[in-house]
Write a structure and sequence with these properties.
The structure is a single chain. By secondary structure, this protein is mainly α. The chain has 3 domains: 1-75 and 112-133, no CATH class; 76-111, no CATH class; 136-232, no CATH class. Helices cover 66% and strands 2% of the residues. It has helices at 7-21, 29-45, 47-55, 60-74, 81-85, 91-99, 112-121, 123-132, 137-163, 190-206, 214-231, and strands at 78-79, 106-107. Strands 1-2 form a two-stranded antiparallel ribbon. α9 (137-163) packs across α11 and α10 (190-206) packs antiparallel against α11 (214-231). The two termini are 40 Å apart. 20% of the residues are buried.
Amino acid sequence: MKPLHDPAWHLAGLVAITFAFGGGGVGAGAANLVAQLCALLVMALHRQAFARFFLRKPDAFTVLVAASVLLPVLQLVPLPPALWSALPGRDMVAVSLEKSGGLGWYPLSLDTASTLTAAIGTLVPLVLVVVGSQLAPPRLYWLAKVVAGLGVATMLFGTMHVLKPGFGNLYSTLNSENLDSVMLGTLADRNACALLFGGCLMFLIALPQAHLAPWAILSRIFGAVLLLVGVS
């Protein structure tokens, strides 16, 4: 299948763009927008995959995916004053609202901007899960290799930032502390970077190991070592 029509290539491109632009968190809305728009494009190209995924007989995996997406969305739904004020942690907020004009309909979340960002942030993983779940095993293995390779590339990019402070960090202005000696890669947060490397390492380990050429075995060992160093 030609790359232009291959869903695996579409997902690989989405992953690459997300690695490059999607690591800034709440403080990098414009960069995140690039990743989310690309996710919407892939979703539009594979809308039939979404129909097959959610309209088929529900199973535990479908329910888990739907619940993960709906969790932040439901926290933005306004609730009646009686129900909202009875929720835990609302006492002080309710008192201040009463003094400033009275209670109204408010969502479950007390930080709607962050919750909305979290809800929008589920778009890229949703597209990857839905479209990726319908790939043939060989194409899925190829995509896992791409993700692991991008993780290694991100680690090498972050190494340049550590060795040469100020080099290439896209989100250095978002950090209030000096993180020149911390591995960040293309992300704004060290914890997110460690989680990214850990996930890429699991992809690398999960790939089939049988019938590999010696150079392939060495490249996987080299990539695993780099990702372990990046996590530590």
